[in-house]
Every structure is written in structure tokens, then in C-alpha cells.
Amino acid sequence: MLPLILICTIFSVGRALVCTPELCKNAVQEPLNCKGSIIKNGGFCGCYDVCAKQEGEECQAHYSFGMIPAGKCDSGMVCTAPIEATGHPMMLLGRGQCVKTDQADLRRAIPDTLSACQQMRRVRMISMVVWQGWWMPKCDVNGDFMDQQCDNMKRCFCVDSKTGDVDKTTYTTLGAANCAVSKRDNTMTKCQQKYASMQFSFAIWQGMWYPKCDTVGNFEPEQCDNTGKCFCVSAVDGVVDESTKVLGSAECSSKKRQTLKKTKCQQMRDIRMISFVVWKGMWTPKCDALGNFMPEQCDNTKHCFCVDAVDGTVDVSTKVLDSADCSQSINSITQS
User: Fold this and answer.
1) Can you tell me the distance from the alpha carbon of 265 to that of 314, in angstroms, rounded to the nearest whole number?
2) Closest Cα to residue 161, out of 143, 173, 136?
3) Tens of pLDDT along 125-160?
4) Which residue has the higher pLDDT, 13 or 227?
5) Where in this chain does the entry annotate a coiled-coil region (predicted)?
6) Secondary structure (DSSP) of 1-47
7) CATH (domain of 287)
8) Residue 63 included in any domain
9) Adjacent-strand bridge partners of 205
10) Is residue 17 one of the residues assigned to a domain?
């Protein structure tokens, strides 16, 4: 935590620095015992002289965020990134190391302009904001995004090497993502795209449905949602035929569609079994073998009553605590 606070402090101070003549009034030039040359006015705000950095010493490769520079290398040397620079702490502040010019090709020089991957990595290294699904980019030796990246939820996925755009269809919850396949074939059908996008979505709503795709990637004729309703869709774009939506199975044959209908008792029971809404006096119907309402029904206040066998209309005059006598109701229905 302390290094992070120190970094943030340096960042804040560096951003606020403005070099004015008054800053050098009290500056004192200390005696220099340099191993190499002296850089005139190379100190803070140009107020004093400093020693040029020597081989292996920390230097300032490029300037950003108003940071106080680490110094320049002596003649015959260049400021290069350390090996494994993309993960090196010195990259956080744009720092490098002085290397002799004839050895510079052994290390990757820090470019004046960072790549998109390096920029994202730097920003996220100094940021204190973390969210669900946050990821720290991994860059290759050329500064491009590595094909596979992983987030803080242990999900791995494939990204574009230049922009870092995530291929949302490649998310995996365990193990490596198959980025070779992602690179080879980026074309997906609408059904496959819809399925892939819903795999990593945290949103759930009433009536949501996960598409079922056939072997060639088209929508299967029948789809079902999270309320227990099934319906028919078009094969290519998955447009729902609202007229076919029923509780239970929908008949989606290529011939004239005949919707499999349930009785009123069965429909009412299915709806209340999956509903999250409960109220005082609510009752879940009991249906007989033919799908009709059983004569006696009971609610959640332990009141029982008689209902019509076909449409479930309650005979309020029969409502009592515990068991209700519905024999007369049965007789009246039989007689009618």
C-alpha cells in the first residue's frame, strides 16, 4: 500500500509542478564527483548541474504525467527499457537503464509513444479503481496485446492484438481460451452471437431466453424462456412468433402450426409456480387428471373454498377455515 501512496503522491506533485525563476533562488549547487560528464543545468527545474547517468543507472526514457525526471545518460549511451519491460516497475514512471550504444540492440529501447497495450497497462498500474471483470493487459515484446488475457474473475478471453478489443464469444470460466480458433474464424451466426453474448451477461429479466442453435448455427424452431413459455422463432434471425407462445411445448413444425394448449387450471398453476409475487389469500390451483380444477381449493391463509371445475371461479360463500364441503358444488356441476 505504501508504494502505491508514494506513487500517487509523486504523481500529484509532478502534475502540479511549474518551474519559475523563484524556485532557483535558494538552490545550492553541491560539489559533484562525477564518473562521467556533467550536464549543465540538468537538475530540478534547471537550478543546478548534475552528473550524467552511467551504465546500469536509472534514467528517464520519456516524460509523462509531469514526473520529476530521473536524469539523462552520458554520451555514448542510450536509455533503454529493462528486459521484460512490460511488467517492470520502472516502466510505471517511464524509467529505464543506461546502456552503451553498442549493447542497445540487446535490449528494446523505450519508444517515445507507447502502444495501446502499454498505455492501458500503465494507466491500470497506477489506478486504484478495480471492478468485477477488471484485467491487467499482458503485452508482447513489440508492445502488442497478447492474444489471451484473463480478468480478476479467472475468466480468460481473446483480444485484438492492436486495440485490445475483447472477443466476447471466447470467454471461458476455466482454463485457457482458444484464441487460435478465434483468429481463424470470426464469423458467427446470429444464434451463436446471441448465445455467446448471454453467456457472460449478469442481467436476468422475466421472459429471458437462451437460444438453442442447430448444427449449422441457425436457431432451432422451438425456444423456451425462463417463465416456462415456449414459442417458435425464425431460423436465421430468431424473430419470435408471438402467436405461438404458450406454457409448455409449442408445435413449430413446418406444417400449419397447432399450438398445444393447456387447460385454464394447468395454465394458472404453471404461472403461480414460477411467480415471485405472493399475496395474502393467494392459492395455487390443484388440477385433476383431465386438467380441470378440483372442487376444493385452499389459499395461503388456510382458508378453503369451492371453485368451478372449468374456469376456477371461487364460490365465496363456501370459504371457511380448514376443509370446505364442496359436495353440493360437485352435484350442481354434474347436473348441469
Assistant:
1) 13
2) 143
3) 877 778 888 899 998 878 889 989 998 888 888 888
4) 227
5) none
6) -HHHHHHHHHHHHHHH----GGGGTT--------SS-EETT-SGGG-
7) 4.10.800.10
8) yes
9) none
10) no
Spatial separation of the C-alpha atoms in residues 82 and 134, rounded to whole Å: 26
- The answer on 43 and 99 residing in a single domain is yes
Give the span between the Cα atoms of 211 and 225, in whole angstroms.
9
Do 272 and 241 reside in the same domain of the chain? no
Strand partners, 314: 307
170-194 pLDDT, tens digit per residue, is 877 667 777 765 554 456 778 887 8
In a shared domain, residues 280 and 217: no
Is the same domain home to 174 and 221?
no
User: What residues contact 14, with CB distance under 8 A and at least 6 apart?
Assistant: 65, 66, 67, 68
14: in domain: no
State the Cα torsion 154-157-160-161 to the nearest 10°. 60
- Long-range contacts of the stretch 237-245 (C-beta < 8 A, 24+): 237/190, 238/190, 238/191, 238/194, 238/211
Please report the DSSP string for 271-333 in residue order. Answer: HHHH-----TT--PPPB-TTSPBPSEEE-TTSEEEEE-TTT--EEEEEEEES----HHHHHHH
Residue 224, strand partner residues: 230
Backbone φ/ψ region at 65: left (φ over 0), alpha (ψ -120 to 50), beta? left
| Phi and psi angles of residue 197, each rounded to the nearest 5 degrees, phi first | -65, -30
Q: How confident is the model at residue 333 (pLDDT cuts 50, 70, 90)?
A: very low
CB 64 within 8 A of CB 74: no
Q: How many structural domains are present in the chain?
A: 4
Host domain of residue 206: 200-247
- Say if residues 43 and 49 touch (Cβ distance below 8 Å): yes
**Within a domain: residue 22?**
no
Res. 87: pLDDT tops 50: no
